[in-house]
# Entry
Amino acid sequence: DAGVIQSPRHEVTEMGQEVTLRCKPISGHDYLFWYRQTMMRGLELLIYFNNNVPIDDSGMPEDRFSAKMPNASFSTLKIQPSEPRDSAVYFCASSLDSLSSGNTIYFGEGSWLTVV
Amino acid sequence: QKEVEQDPGPLSVPEGAIVSLNCTYSNSAFQYFMWYRQYSRKGPELLMYTYSSGNKEDGRFTAQVDKSSKYISLFIRDSQPSDSATYLCAMTRDDKIIFGKGTRLHILP
# Structure
């Protein structure tokens, strides 16, 4: 399997612009997670989906952030409008089944976002 | 108090030394305990996975969990320059994985 695939790998955008990050989870995985990583705060869970349904979005920082999963093989994380403090690495991850059943997650390579 | 505490380092040790990395946690509800390794500009990858208190060994790596003290450790024997990376502890509760901030490790040749 190709693993979790994210795009773009790098994005530099101006403040106020819309940013869309994309993710293709591992085939057959029922759970998809979006994380953000910064030096100050480490890896933070933003939102996760089970069978394409958002389960917990309590980590989404504010209304400027939104995430969708229209089908089992694709998810997007959108920031509109973007701000310099959104600069971070955004990781997508997926798991075969419930984490509370002993499954673990597999990460993509990340999308490196810089907002100037 | 954060749920998971991890010293960010950096930690520099000479090649061949034994490395000890640690995390403490505050929530007794955590069920599974993991260590992830993250190389520069890469995503985290799973290194070790444990459930119960005690030790689990895999090659040069040993993961230790002490649920009574809410303390987990990762030991690396015969450390190599290729072990230079950031090591993140992680714990599962409900359907979420909570990560420590990571410890940057440098193995000096």
